[in-house]
Write a structure and sequence with these properties.
Blueprint: E1 8-14, E2 23-28, E3 32-35, E4 57-59, H1 65-68, E5 82-84, H2 86-90, E6 98-100, E7 105-109, E8 112-118, E9 126-130, E10 136-138, E11 159-163, H3 173-185, E12 189-192, H4 198-208, E13 215-216, H5 218-228, H6 240-249, E14 259-262, H7 270-279, E15 286-289, H8 298-305, E16 308-310, H9 319-329, E17 333-337, H10 344-351, E18 355-356, E19 362-363
Parallel strand pairs: 3-4, 4-5, 5-6, 10-11, 11-17, 12-14, 12-15, 13-14, 15-16, 17-18
Antiparallel strand pairs: 1-2, 1-19, 2-3, 7-8, 8-9, 9-10
Helix pairs in contact: 5-6
The protein binds zinc ion (ZN).
Residues 62, 64, 67, 121-122, 141 line the site of zinc ion.
């Protein structure tokens, strides 16, 4: 039976004040719920869950490693069952018991009413709204700019954990696209991308902007096909057919020709790693990384040496997107997650009159 838990508080285990693994705990008079249990994105970065105690359920916003890559820590918090969308649950390690959350709907998690909606960021990715205290909205990672992944409007909440990964950054995605289009005009271009995030978004953009079709690595091609078929519920209307056509017709990567999309984004493994080993020391093709550059990876090293360029492709909200979200939810308290604490004054200005908190506990 679902009931309102009037007394509840939020503990920030990891994820506020710096880019790091996501892990939050919601304590109620009933169950204790964990929101995300990530790893990274810097190699070796685990959340410290030693003092957390017993958790009754672990809810996942999406399947990226910095949100769901820490599941090996579950035994330290009582081996809680996992709640995730069917698409995310499919990618969990074998033997992890999973209950299904809807892409857009309501679920009863041990008596707590949980609403979820698509977050515009990754296959199966959702925001979570918990009916505790005045309402807690956890955005996970989200974007309203994606032409590929659908984004559902979240309900009002007294407290919102926003995706502040980009700090005070406020450049529109169209500007990022224009810079990438300019690179494509100048010759062959390799884009190492994640197949379960902006990779398919970039493929769709190249196709729709008349810059494609891109040359695809096999993992990318399979990802497009999966999105167009089994995972099409997380897409914006009308997009699945274009992806299916791209998956069927786009050429393979067979030399430094055209624009090439290959996984993984940081070039540390996958098809991108093989291509970088091949082309890293030659003048062509141009190489552009479009996401976070984890220290110690080819993405960081090749951009530092000048062989590769970094041009961001937005997959997180801009400061103004978060300001709109905070106003729409009517939140009185905002926790900016995953961003650098030096942006605190910008967040305070953008989210006023809501108060901004980077440390818990937060009374809900
Ligand atoms: Zn993510």
């Amino acid at each position: 039976m679902m009931m309102p838990f009037d007394q509840a508080r939020l503990q920030i285990i990891s994820g506020a004040g710096a880019k790091g693994p996501a892990c939050f705990v919601v304590e109620t008079s009933g169950p204790r719920l964990m929101l995300d249990l990530g790893y990274g994105p810097q190699p070796g970065l685990w959340p410290d869950v030693d003092g957390v105690g017993h958790i009754d359920a672990l809810l996942l916003s999406h399947g990226h490693a910095d949100h769901a890559g820490g599941l090996r820590l579950r035994p330290k918090v009582g081996n809680p069952p996992v709640w995730a969308t069917a698409i995310v649950a499919r990618g969990l390690p074998p033997g992890v018991p999973a209950h299904v959350l809807p892409l857009n709907g309501t679920a009863d998690v041990l008596g707590v009413r949980v609403r979820s909606g698509r977050s515009g960021h990754a296959p199966g990715g959702i925001w979570l709204h918990l009916d505790v205290g005045g309402g807690l909205l956890y955005m996970g990672d989200n974007s309203s700019e994606s032409a590929l992944y659908a984004a559902d409007p979240p309900p009002p909440a007294a407290t919102v954990i926003v995706d502040a990964s980009y700090g005070h950054y406020d450049t529109p995605l169209e500007e990022c696209q224009a810079r990438i289009a300019h690179c494509i005009d100048r010759g062959p271009l390799l884009l190492p991308v994640p197949e379960n995030g902006r990779g398919p978004e970039i493929a769709l953009y190249l196709d729709q902007a008349g810059l494609g079709p891109p040359h695809l690595g096999e993992v990318m091609r399979n990802a497009l096909e999966r999105l167009a078929t089994t995972d099409s519920e997380c897409l914006r209307p009308g997009v699945a057919n274009r992806l299916a056509m791209l998956a069927a017709q786009a050429p393979a990567i067979g030399g430094a020709r055209g624009v090439m999309l290959a996984n993984r984004a940081d070039g540390a493994s996958g098809e991108a790693a093989e291509l970088l080993a091949h082309w890293g020391a030659s003048a062509e093709p141009a190489i552009v990384f479009t996401g976070y550059l984890p220290p110690g990876t080819p993405a960081a090293e090749l951009t530092a040496s000048g062989r590769a360029q970094y041009l961001r492709w937005n997959v997180h909200p801009r400061l103004s997107d978060n300001a709109v979200l905070v106003r729409a939810t009517g939140a009185a308290t905002v926790v900016p997650a995953f961003g650098d604490a030096k942006c605190l004054p910008d967040w305070q200005r953008a989210f006023a009159p809501a108060r901004v908190m980077l440390q818990g506990p937060v009374r809900l």
